[in-house]
Design brief:
By secondary structure, the chain is an alpha+beta fold. 48% of the residues lie in helices and 21% in strands. Helix 2 crosses helix 6. It has a single domain, classed as TT1751-like domain (TATA-Binding Protein, 2-Layer Sandwich), CATH 3.30.310.70.
Length: 157
């Protein structure tokens, strides 16, 4: 019985640290602090500025909670995108602006481990774009996935 519990715990831990095809999220562990991970992510995006990538800003949920008199472990969303690519799609469907620009979440769990979570390009291609009457090519989705893997690996490893 103890062996089953250990296997189940390992499976759960592995699931929480990787992508799940069903939920469209990738969660990667970071060897850095929340602030360092955010700074690394922003630097990785800014390094792609010639390709049109920009960081639009950050939302510090922990600071907002503190102003409301509440405590929360670090949770910061960084908002980023590529206006050269996104603007054309938004001119076709104004409602796409509710889902773009993209976001990544850097957060700390109860054991003080730091994580970076983001939506997969497959999720965007299968769910986000179609809900606005748009589509994304397989090549575009693959290029975006490669980009996201690169910048998030550079941010966390």
């Amino acid at each position: 019985m103890a062996k089953i519990a250990i296997v189940a715990a390992i499976a759960l831990a592995m699931h929480s640290a990787t992508a799940s095809a069903d939920d469209g999220l990738v969660t990667k562990p970071s060897k850095y602090s929340v602030e360092e991970t955010l700074d690394n992510f922003e630097a990785a995006i800014n390094a792609q500025a010639t390709g049109g990538w920009v960081v639009f800003g950050r939302i510090d949920h922990t600071a907002a909670a503190k102003k409301a008199g509440l405590d929360m472990r670090p949770r910061t969303v960084i908002i980023f995108g590529n206006p050269k690519a996104g603007t054309l799609q938004m001119t076709k469907s104004a409602t796409l602006a509710i889902d773009l620009p993209m976001k990544a979440l850097v957060w700390q769990d109860d054991q003080d481990r730091v994580w970076l979570t983001y939506n997969t390009s497959e999720y965007s291609a299968k769910y986000v774009f179609p809900r606005h009457g748009l589509s994304a090519s397989d090549d575009a989705a693959k290029a975006l996935e490669n980009f996201l893997t690169n910048v998030t690996d550079r941010s966390t490893q």
